Amino acid sequence: MQRSGNVWSARGLGLSAAAAILGVAYAASKGSYLVTHYLGHPWPLHAEEIVSPALAGLATIALISGLTMAMVGRRIALRKASVSAGV
Q1: pTM
Q2: HSE value, Cβ hemisphere, 13 Å, CA-based, for 67
């Protein structure tokens, strides 16, 4: 049987992992734009101004949400353990 605190923690850490993937995508987007600009064949700046902030914002929101969920899950698990122990 799975405790509800563990479910929250698992989902939160999964969301944090998704945030890491979005962060890597942001870095790849920024880096590839700079490299292609250096080589003389950049894609339109308009596209870069849309993609990079969107990836950075999503990564930040997902990371904050995921870490908060993991912390809340730990507190739920500790609270349930103390209630079942009769404390």
Answers
A1: 0.79
A2: 7
